[in-house]
Structures are given as C-alpha cells and as structure tokens.
C-alpha cells in the first residue's frame, strides 16, 4: 500500500528534530524577545510613574493609561510603576524567580486580596460606596477589586470578606517567601 502525499510531506513519515544550530537560534531569539519585553515594561513603568506622580509631561496617552488603570485596579495604581519596573528588570536579567510557579501564584493571590481589601475599605481608604460599581470605584479597588468584593460580601458577608483578605495576604507571603507556617509556629514556641 502506498503513502498518501499531503503537500510536501508524506503522511505517516516522521518529522526530523531541528538541528542544534536551529535550536540555539530560536533560544537566542527568545532571549532577545524576553529582554525587549523587559525593556518595554521598564519604559512603561517610568512613563506611568511620570503620569501618576508628576502629573504632566506624559501627554494625553499618559492620562488615558492612568485613567484606564485606575478603573481597572483603583488606588493600587500607585504600585503599578514599581511593579512594572521590577518585572521588566527581572525579565532583562532573566531572574530565576520568574520561573518559580509559587512566586507567580503568590503575586496573583496577593494582588487580588489587596484589590478586594481596597474595594471593601478594610485598609481604611477609598470613597464612600453609593451603589455597586459607582463612580468612586477608581478610588477603591477598581473593577477587579469591586467584582471580588461584590462576590465575597454577597456570599460570606463582611467578616468572611475580611477573613478571605487576611488569608489571601498570608498565603501570598508564604508563597512568595517560600517559608513554612508550620516551621514558624513550631519555632515561635521556643
């Protein structure tokens, strides 16, 4: 029985592995892409910092970027330039922490817990809430924090929301630091 020809390859034929040179070329391009992405994040962080903290010189694009981030993450926008710059530098130097799954999970959990805390007013800041998703949400936790707060407060109430925020922030600290709560508790008794 003959083979079926599809384009230039023969069905059922094995594909060759790329040569070592081709693999090295692809990994070098990946490194360049990673470094250029990091450089772009550093530039974006500096640009956003100028827009937020200096307030002029960033033009209309800087204002739009700041307004959009305020709607998305609320008053946590003040942390965005530092986070973008740190992430960009970590990409440029190819820091191994970026490859660690617990680090990424801890940053995500901590960020969401912080946004919920800002939306709930647990940290004692933000505008008074008239209704859900009102005009003051950019001074609280933004749409992300408001959505998380709406979900938690309507299911487990205010105390449950506070507990979720506290546990989320503690879990983020444990995941980011790599510490063990059991070890800390055992050593605390000595």
Describe the structure.
- The protein has 190 residues and is an all-alpha fold.
- It contains six helices and two strands; from the N terminus they run ββαααααα.
- It has helices spanning 20-54, 59-73, 80-92, 101-120, 142-177, 181-188, and strands spanning 5-6, 9-10.
- Strands 1-2 form a two-stranded antiparallel sheet.
- A hairpin with a 2-residue loop joins strand 1 (5-6) and strand 2 (9-10).
- The radius of gyration is 23 Å and the shape is globular.
- The chain starts with a strand and ends with a helix.
- Mean pLDDT is 81; it is low at 24-28.
Walk me through the topology.
Layout: E1 5-6, E2 9-10, H1 20-54, H2 59-73, H3 80-92, H4 101-120, H5 142-177, H6 181-188
Antiparallel strand pairs: 1-2
Helix pairs in contact: 1-2, 1-3, 2-5, 4-5
Class based on secondary structure composition and strand pairing? mainly alpha
Biggest sheet: strands, sense, closure?
Answer: 2 strands, antiparallel
Name the average pLDDT: 81
Secondary structure: helix percent: 55-70%
How far the N terminus sits from the C terminus, by CA atoms, comes to: 78 Å
General form:
globular
Number of strands: 2
Q: Going across the biggest sheet, name each strand in turn.
A: 1-2
Q: Helix and strand string, N-terminal first?
A: EEHHHHHH
Using the CA coordinates, give the radius of gyration: 23 Å
% residues in beta strands: under 5%
Low-confidence sequence ranges: 24-28
Number of helices: 6
Pick out its properties.
190 residues, mainly alpha
Quickly describe the structure:
The protein is an all-alpha fold and 190 residues long. Helix content is 67%, strand content 2%.
């Amino acid at each position: 029985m003959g083979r079926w020809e599809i384009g230039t390859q023969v069905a059922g034929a094995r594909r060759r592995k790329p040569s070592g040179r081709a693999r090295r070329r692809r990994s070098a391009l990946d490194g360049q892409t990673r470094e250029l992405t990091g450089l772009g994040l550093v530039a974006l962080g500096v640009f956003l910092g100028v827009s937020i903290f200096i307030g002029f010189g960033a033009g209309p694009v800087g204002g739009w970027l700041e307004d959009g981030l305020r709607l998305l993450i609320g008053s946590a926008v003040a942390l965005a330039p530092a986070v973008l710059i740190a992430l960009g530098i970590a990409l440029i130097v190819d820091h191994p922490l970026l490859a660690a799954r617990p680090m990424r999970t801890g940053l995500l959990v901590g960020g969401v817990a912080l946004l919920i805390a800002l939306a709930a007013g647990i940290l004692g800041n933000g505008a008074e809430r008239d209704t859900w998703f009102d005009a003051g949400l950019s001074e609280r936790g933004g749409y992300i924090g408001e959505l998380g707060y709406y979900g938690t407060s309507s299911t487990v109430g205010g105390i449950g929301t506070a507990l979720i925020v506290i546990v989320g922030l503690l879990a983020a600290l444990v995941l980011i630091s790599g510490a063990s709560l059991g070890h800390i508790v055992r050593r605390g008794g000595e």
